[in-house]
Amino acid sequence: MTLTFRALMGATALSAVAMAAQAQDTTLTIATVNNGDMIRMQELAGAFTEETGIALEWVTLEENVLRQRVTQDIATNGGQFDVMTIGTYEAPIWGAQDWLVSLNDLPAEYDVDDLLPAIRNGLTVDGELYAAPFYGESSMVMYRTDLMEAAGLEMPDAPTWDFIKEAAAAMTDKENEVYGICLRGKAGWGENMAFLTAMSNSYGARWFDENWQPQFNTDAWKATLTDYLDLMNNYGPPGASSNGFNENLALFQQGKCGMWIDATVAASFVSNPTDSTVADQVGYALAPDNGLGPRGNWLWAWNLAVPAGSDDVDAAKQFIAWATSKDYTALVAENEGWANVPPGTRTSLYENQEYLDAAPFAQMTLESINAADPTQPTVDPVPYTGVQFVAIPEFQSIGTAVGQAFSAALAGQMSAEDALAQAQALTEREMKRAGYIQ
Amino acid sequence: MARAVTTQRKTINTVIAWIVGFLIFFPILWIFILSFHTEGDAIKHPFEVLTSRWTFESYATVQERSNYFRHFWNSVVISVGSTVIGLIIAVPSAWAMAFVPGRRTKDVLMWMLSTKMLPPVGVLLPIYLICQNLGLLDTRVALVFILMMINLPIIIWMLYTYFREIPGEILEAARMDGASLRNEVIYVLLPMAVPGIASTLLLNIILAWNEAFWTLTLTAAKAAPLTAFIASYSSPEGLFYAKLSAASIMAIAPILIMGWFSQKQLVRGLTFGAVK
Hints:
The complex is a heterodimer.
Chain A lengths: L1 H23 L2 E7 L2 H9 L1 H7 L2 E7 L1 H13 L7 E5 L2 H7 L20 H6 L1 E2 L2 E2 L2 E13 H6 L10 H11 L7 E4 L9 H11 L16 H17 L9 H9 L3 E7 L2 H5 L11 E5 L12 E7 L7 H11 L2 H11 L16 H6 L3 H10 L23 H16 L5 H18 L5
Parallel strand pairs in A: 1-2, 1-3, 7-8
Antiparallel strand pairs in A: 3-10, 4-5, 6-8, 6-9, 6-10
Helix pairs in contact in A: 17-18
Chain B lengths: L6 H28 L4 H4 L3 H6 L5 H9 L2 H32 L5 H10 L9 H10 L6 H25 L3 H9 L4 H12 L1 H17 L3 H4 L8 H6 L9 H21 L1 H8 L6
Helix pairs in contact in B: 1-14, 4-14, 5-8, 5-11, 8-11, 9-10, 11-15
């Protein structure tokens, strides 16, 4: 009897110890993308674990795989991840579905009002903030100052598309493999369509009118696609229909592009002398416009969010508050220098002289971000939010299908008119199927 | 009578074989070369890549950033586990079909093979939900079971082919001598089928090691094998060729070394019965 009693007591004590250990041993699983800022966060996250005792497990995936994995997990309430890295496209859609936990109760010292309004608005649905921005970006013109000078031109801070055409023609020297302009041509809603949708805004085009009728049959879209194809066919690199961010980055770094219009985050790559052969010959300007108001720049942010299926919501929020805080920015600056802090999320960063001194592209990045309005992206009113995308669940498939038609036009497989007609037909069909239009 | 082959013909065939072999091997060779360069050098013109400085920088970064050995151990458990369990199920099945075939044996074999024709994504959602409901997401158990099921038709087919080459009379003789069914399979059949079983084992370990759909879909942090380790080095914004190449070489090295040492056995097993 005594022995049995002792055994029972022992087992109870062991269980209690095990349960206590489990409570202390919180581990968060974080799904993220592989880019410089995210990798840096992984390296510095030891400070968070030290401070809070919360262990972190990282799942780093390629962007498209990540999107598929987190969508699958969140839609089935899988609960595999406690913190997810999501884009500006997913945040409002998933927030509206109640798939994400609201972050409205982050502590006061987080200073949510310091977030850049353009970025914060894109992550808010009905007054609820569903994701905290880790880094934000827009797009701008990066150009070779030496080639521009040799062409006898001077890049204005806010160029027009006419100037871009003129400069591209003047800088092109195909015999020496120097191409006036490099733009995205690879098919995909986040590839060529990100660029072309942003470009179309500056031409006054829009994806849908107020009644969700597709608008690819308008003159504005025709002008957009025709100018894009003319630029790329006459002054772009060969095989441009398979070029995305990385391919153009490689071309620019090797001195083969006169101008490149792409994500502001590229500025830190092209100006890095370790990898770029033209690091000290790069200038920056706002994305071009056509005098209609909107510029051809986009707005994007990678954000951290807590899925509704997480078992450790409080710990997850604690991590997000740490990773997107001003203190984290200071930690990165201390360890890696101000030029390497995650850009584009907080107003205070752009008031910091040390940062402005270390990042010559900082002011242009801020102006580009501020110039984008996701709620009024183009000239005419639209029923959707999003600058280079349409924040509806159907957009991923429609955007990619339209991107394939435009990429085929760039590859010379069809004319601009045929590509636009195809885009109009397939968008109409999908929008009817989804019930937006009759 | 054997056909006479001239020396010239032999030389041409040898050269063609070497060229084809080199072309097949070239992507791996190029990955190997890129892995020893910096990101900046890896995007240069191929000739410039060869002449630029070689460095272990990418390997050092990958080693520092990822827990290679955890991914490696997961790959070992998943590939070996799924293959061994598959063999345990497949040996009796193949024995039955090879030595006591019924009227529908061929149909059963074809039906099993037909399951390989289904695109995996077609059953993604049901399998994902089953794993989720059973609490098996991000576990090695789920992957061992699923990869075993995926490779089972191949294992059975391969073993069936090898067993068919073994004269049934030998097994009959063992039975006449009083061997039980268990002893007949273990002490008579299996020793004779060792080359076939070894090559089946090796080939299916390789298939399971390289499987990148289910291993990426059903794992997160704990059970992620080397395929997830490679995938983590692809980047949408920023150069990654050198690091991705280093990660790929680290992921394929164990299976490449295993294949290298066992190639004789593998070829012998795969061509078993091809030449009578």
